Amino acid sequence: IIKMKLKDKTAIITGASRGIGFAVAEAFVREGAKVAVCGSRVSSAQKAVDKLKESFPEAELIPVGVDISSSDSIAEMVKTVLAQWDKIDILFKRLEFYFIFHVEVVFSIY
Q1: Rg (Cα) of the chain, in Å, rounded?
Q2: Does residue 14 contact residue 38 with C-beta atoms inside 8 Å?
Q3: Dihedral sign, CA of 61, 62, 63, 67?
Q4: Rounded CA separation 63/48 (Å)
Q5: Quick check: 104 pLDDT over 60?
Q6: Is the dihedral angle over the CA atoms 97, 82, 4, 27 positive or is it negative?
Q7: Separation of alpha carbons 61 and 95, rounded Å
Q8: Residue 20 has pLDDT above 80, yes or no
Q9: What pTM was estimated for this model as a whole?
Q10: Which of 12-40 are b and which e, b meaning 16 or more Cβ less than 10 Å from the residue's Cβ?
């Protein structure tokens, strides 16, 4: 078993409202990460947050609706996360992930 040791790390996980994205969000939460649970609609992201809270009531989670094909939507997602936690350490997008050292890197990914 691999331990990610994500305590005090902040992660954005797109597609986290279901499937593989949800499983990744659950694993990150289990390892102590603060997670922005992103879905195509904030309502689907909120349902995923509610489900995660059932198993991890102390988890730090926020639901975020994002259209990953829109740079404006992505910028709004980043602003939302930074307003909540002041930093972003990890961006998990589909089957890719990035360690982010400066927020500016988020914008150059797209």
Answers
A1: 13
A2: yes
A3: negative
A4: 8
A5: no
A6: negative
A7: 21
A8: yes
A9: 0.81
A10: bbbbbbeeebbebbbbbbeebbbbbbbbe
